Amino acid sequence: MASLPDLAADLISASGRASEKLNLPSLQSKMKSDPEGYSSELTLIYKQFKSSLELFQQQVALNFTSLSGIASDSTVAKDLGDRAMFLAHVTPFYPKELAQYPNELVRFLESSARNLPSDLGCMWHKL
């Protein structure tokens, strides 16, 4: 599994827009206005979401079984939240590519909502 920074680098290089910094709100706007032109970016952001989801679930499992009391890394939850919100906003523009996304999100929330940091819990209610 690729790390999130590696996937971000892939996103920039795959798009052919290496001079643009990864900026999710800007990318979201561009994808809404030209869905076909940004399909490779969608694929990579979706992969980032799935990686973030997996990392978050692993982190929760480790914290649950850990006796050392190591706190979870909030950046993993934030990355997951950022990508989930991004995908929620572009899903109407990519109905085929993101057909499974709503179900994945519901399954995640059903199984892991209580493990979300409180600041992200509010964000999930907006989805």
3D structure, described in words:
- This protein is mainly alpha-helical.
- The chain has one domain (4-126).
- The protein is built from 6 helices and no strands.
- It has helices spanning 4-15, 24-33, 39-65, 74-90, 101-112, 118-126.
- Helix 1 runs antiparallel to helix 3, helix 2 packs parallel to helix 4 (74-90) and helix 3 (39-65) packs antiparallel against helix 4.
- The chain is elongated.
- It starts with a helix and ends with a helix.
Q: Any idea what the radius of gyration is?
A: 15 Å
Q: Which runs of at least 5 residues are low in confidence (pLDDT < 50)? A: 11-20
Helix content: 55-70%
Counting helices, strands and paired strands, the structural category is mainly alpha
Mean pLDDT: 77
Please report which band the strand proportion falls in: under 5%, 5-15%, 15-25%, 25-35%, 35-45% or over 45%: under 5%
Alpha-carbon distance between the termini? 27 Å
Q: If helices are DSSP runs of H or I spanning 4 or more residues, what is the number of helices?
A: 6
Note the overall shape: elongated
Instruction: Write down the secondary-structure element order.
Output: HHHHHH
How many structural domains are formed by the residues? 1
Query: Based on DSSP secondary structure assignment, what is the total number of beta strands?
Result: 0
Task: Describe the sheet with the most strands.
Answer: none
Main location: nucleus
Protein name: Protein SDA1
Subcellular location: Nucleus, Nucleolus
Function: Required for 60S pre-ribosomal subunits export to the cytoplasm.
